[in-house]
Write a structure and sequence with these properties.
The protein starts with a helix and ends with a helix. With 320 residues, it is an all-alpha fold. It has 12 helices and no strands. The radius of gyration is 20 Å and the shape is globular.
Amino acid sequence: MDELFAKAPIKKVYFKLAFPVVLGMITTMIYNLADTMFVAKTGNTDLVAGVTIGAPLFTFLIAVSDIFGLGGSSLISRLFGEKRYDLSKRISSFCLFGSVIVGIILTILLLVFAKPILILLGAKTSTYSYAFDFYRIIALGSVFIIFSLVPQNLIRTEGLAFEAMLSTMIGTIWAIILDPIFLFGLKWGATGVGLANIIGYLVTDLLLIFFTIKNAHYISLNPKIMKISGQNIKDVIAIGIPGSITNFAQSFGMALLNSSLAAYGANKVAAMGITQKIYSIVILVIVGFAFGAQPLIGHNYGAKNWQRLILSSWFLMQLL
């Protein structure tokens, strides 16, 4: 690992880390488009609008996941550079199990306050039942969504970008396969769309756990070592919360927009939902390239290898 991050050519290391992330993002984009196509093919604008109304919940859960995934991976990368491997294991355990605990708490809160949240998101009489069906499944699967992005980010700090990508791709492919089966074959409507999503995340989670146990040396799934100091928690949150603000803001913006459009009818909300998914294509690719550099920059920052840190940062700025 030290050989890869500290000595290998920067260009080679970057693309070794970045390409799998970008490919994983592209797979997610394909699913977003396929999901939109399948739902639109029903010809039911209320169903499309209902799923669109529930979409900000997804973005919100990803933002919560970023607190542990981005915050934890940034700190662990620096600890690897400092060769503090024991602490990195404890930090990873805290992030992994912390995300599960937060996911369980959010599931309870989201279900208890489902009606006011859906009304706030813009659900009307014609779209409420569809929005609730989708929302309920996503809320029940909150743990799987929040957890999935944490090991993805953490194992990349050990250079396991391919394993992270493979887990994402396989889970997404499962979701793409199940979507039309649940929607058209079993006629489960919005419930089927949500269930296909959650099963895809569950498959991804199981694969990430497998690769973490099999290939990661300093990322731990041992709950007995998840207790860390208050300062360590602050270090995770200090990076995680700013890193998640973009998704929090996007979730709020989507909710506000959908709520405003709801007054003009379900077809307007449905059209905006399709537009938002197409717009996300460019964003996801850029995010993928940016995420690829994080382990490299973090490792060299921790190792105080300033020359390589500057060269890595300069290379990334030129690329993007």
